[in-house]
């Protein structure tokens, strides 16, 4: 059997077609606005969107959801901002950020696995918990006057325009491309998301996989928070409210099925660029937030429709094959 050209295979896939659209959109946006002069901010947004999108991708691949992924970044920012002001080394601050994210996701994963409560319900409760906690924190959670030498690290540039945090996020992306394709745990995530019953029959401890995946997602959200807040001179916990409406579309548009079991990390890169461009387009073209949210809604609906019809097509094909074999 003749092997397909990998380049042709990519550009005929969902991710490849999306990549072509993104390139065309980028050309139009650059030609009709001053995106070129604002390229650093644009790339900086992509940096945290990639990692946040990966965090949601892992959960959605299980057929679950975490809508607390926006508000938890504010809570993490409060802890890490204070640690940075105290002069705690950044590597330790990163570990603390990951720990807080893991604890948040552990609560969601544990209740989901132990008591079979839908993750959407649990994560919604966590959102309300976070919003309720913010006003009770010292200074309502605000952390100001973070030393300039710290924010300078977050704003480090390569070649004058490329944020260093973007390189870091791409390294994380490459790792997860390898992780999902070649590790046993990555394959278990696909298996559990595709069918928990089938995964159980294959000897997979589905509850363990779900819980560990939530922990991994929480660690990524901790890193996302560092990328978001490190370049800033102050932290306002409520400032990340609603960021889940970036991460969820990024995951869904990337090709991850909301029903679970499908998706590739490489799609996160393309969809993160698309969402960041939509955000910039509404700003640079003066359209306002109404058009931004309207566009997000349409994009997500199209992506969901695409994933559902693709699933139905695959399921229908397998059903026919099964029926034919039975006859």
Verbal overview:
With 327 residues, this protein is mostly helical. The protein has a single domain, classed as Orthogonal Bundle (ABC transporter involved in vitamin B12 uptake, BtuC). The protein has helices at residues 6-11, 14-32, 39-60, 71-85, 90-115, 119-133, 148-154, 164-182, 184-194, 196-201, 206-229, 244-253, 266-284, 289-326; strands spanning 157-158, 162-163. It has a two-stranded antiparallel ribbon with strand order 1-2. A hairpin with a 3-residue loop joins strand 1 (157-158) and strand 2 (162-163). Helix 3 runs antiparallel to helix 11 (206-229), helix 8 packs across helix 9 (184-194) and helix 9 (184-194) crosses helix 11. The radius of gyration is 20 Å and the shape is globular. The model is unreliable at 314-327 (pLDDT under 50).
The CATH C-level class name: Mainly Alpha
Low-confidence spans: 314-327
Please indicate the percent range of residues in DSSP E strands (runs of 2 or more).
under 5%
Shape: globular
Q: What is the N-to-C succession of helices and strands?
A: HHHHHHHEEHHHHHHH
Structural class: mainly alpha
Number of strands: 2
| Portion of residues within helices | over 70%
User: Span between N and C termini?
Assistant: 29 Å
What is the number of independent domains? 1
Number of helices, where a helix is a run of at least 4 consecutive DSSP H or I residues:
14
In the CATH scheme, what's the topology name? ABC transporter involved in vitamin B12 uptake, BtuC
Largest sheet: 2 strands, antiparallel
Q: On the 0-100 scale, what is the average pLDDT?
A: 89
The CATH architecture designation is Orthogonal Bundle
Lateral strand order in the biggest sheet = 1-2
Mind telling me the C-alpha Rg?
20 Å
């Amino acid at each position: 059997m003749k092997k397909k050209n990998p380049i042709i295979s990519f550009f005929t896939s969902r991710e490849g077609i999306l990549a072509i659209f993104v390139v065309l959109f980028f050309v139009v946006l650059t030609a009709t606005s001053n995106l070129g002069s604002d390229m650093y901010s644009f790339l900086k947004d992509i940096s945290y969107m990639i990692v946040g999108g990966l965090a949601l991708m892992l959960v959605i691949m299980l057929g679950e959801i975490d809508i607390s992924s926006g508000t938890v970044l504010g809570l993490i920012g409060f802890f890490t901002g204070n640690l940075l002001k105290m002069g705690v080394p950044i590597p330790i601050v990163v570990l603390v950020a990951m720990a807080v994210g893991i604890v948040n996701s552990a609560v969601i994963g544990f209740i989901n696995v132990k008591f079979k409560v839908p993750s959407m319900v649990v994560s919604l409760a966590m959102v309300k918990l976070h919003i309720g906690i913010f006003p009770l924190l010292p200074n309502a959670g605000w952390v100001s006057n973070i030393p300039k030498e710290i924010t300078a690290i977050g704003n480090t540039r390569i070649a004058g325009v490329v944020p260093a945090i973007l390189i870091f996020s791409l390294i994380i992306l490459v790792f997860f491309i390898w992780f999902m394709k070649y590790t046993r745990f990555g394959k278990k995530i696909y298996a559990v998301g595709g069918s928990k019953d089938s995964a159980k029959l294959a000897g997979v401890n589905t509850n363990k996989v779900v819980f560990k995946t939530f922990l991994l997602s929480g660690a990524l959200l901790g890193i996302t928070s560092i990328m978001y807040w490190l370049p800033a001179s102050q932290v306002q916990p409520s400032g990340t409210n609603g960021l889940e409406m970036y991460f969820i579309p990024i995951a869904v548009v990337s090709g991850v099925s909301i029903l679970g079991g499908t998706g590739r990390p490489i799609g996160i890169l393309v969809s993160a660029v698309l969402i960041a461009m939509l955000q910039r387009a509404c700003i640079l073209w003066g359209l306002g937030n109404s058009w931004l949210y309207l566009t997000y809604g349409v994009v997500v609906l199209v992506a969901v429709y695409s994933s559902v019809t693709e699933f139905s097509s695959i399921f229908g094909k397998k059903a026919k094959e099964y029926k034919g074999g039975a006859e």
